[in-house]
C-alpha cells in the first residue's frame, strides 16, 4: 500500500529573494502550492532557478536540480557551507567601496565568462541590469550590463542565506537534466516544472535547446506511473498562439489554472526602463495532471 506524507501545511514565503531570477515565482508561490496534492512523497523541482517554490514549500524530502553548473554551485554551497557562500558575495560587493561599480561589475563578468563559476555568478545575479541574466547564442557570453540599482549589502545577503539554508534543510541538490529527474520519480511523488518559456526566454541559458514537446512526453510517462506533475507555463497571448501549434498528449492535464505574475523582469529589461502598460502584465498558466 502506498503511504503518502502530508507536505504543505503552514507554507510561508521567505522574507526576501536569495537570487534574482527571471520568471521566478516568489510572488505567487503560495498560490501555486495550494494546488499541490495535500499528500505526496518526494518533491522534485527539475528547473530549480531561484528556488522560490522549494523554499516556500520547505518539503520534508526534496530534490532540487538544474542543468546549469554555476547555478547549482550556488545551491550546493548553500547546503554544504553557507558561510562560504556569504564570503563569495562579500568579497565581490566590498570591491565597490574602493572602485567604480560598473568597473567592478565588468571585471567580475569578464572573470565569469572566462571561467563559469558560482562565486562570480551570485554577484552578477544580484547586480545585473533588470535581474535578467542573458547569454549570446553564438558563444554563450554572459552579456547583461550592470544594473542601475545598488546591490544588497553583505549583511543583508548573510541574513537571506541563513534563512534560505534553514528552509532548504531537507533538500538535496543535483546538477542534471530534467529527464534524469523524471526517470527517478516514483508513484506518489510530486514534480513541479517551471521550464524556460519558449517565447519570452529565448535569450536565456538552455532555452535555445529546450523542447516543450519532449517535456510533455516525460510528463505523460510520469503520470502513467502515478507521479503527480504540476507545470507552470507562459500564459501570454503570444505564447498561447505558439502553444496552439503544439500537440498535447490526449488527457495529459486535468486542470488549467490562470495566475497573474504582474510585470515580468524580462519585459522590463526589453523595455529598457520605459513605463510598461498594464496590458503587458504577465499571465501564467498552471497545468496539473491530477485533480485535488
Characterise the protein shown here:
Keywords: Methyltransferase, S-adenosyl-L-methionine, Transferase. One of its GO terms (molecular function) is site-specific DNA-methyltransferase (adenine-specific) activity. Its EC number is 2.1.1.72. The structure is a single chain. The chain is 37% helix and 15% strand. With 292 residues, it is α/β, with parallel strands linked by helices. The protein folds into 2 domains: 181 residues, Rossmann fold (3-Layer(aba) Sandwich); 82 residues, Adenine-specific Methyltransferase, Domain 2 (Adenine-specific Methyltransferase, domain 2, Orthogonal Bundle), CATH 1.10.1020. The protein has a 7-stranded mixed beta sheet, with helices on both faces. α9 links the parallel β6 and β7. α4 packs antiparallel against α7 and α5 packs antiparallel against α6. The protein is globular, with a radius of gyration of 19 Å.
Structure characteristics:
single chain, 292 residues, alpha/beta, Rossmann fold, Adenine-specific Methyltransferase, domain 2, 2 domains, two-stranded antiparallel sheet, 11 helices, 9 strands, 15% strand
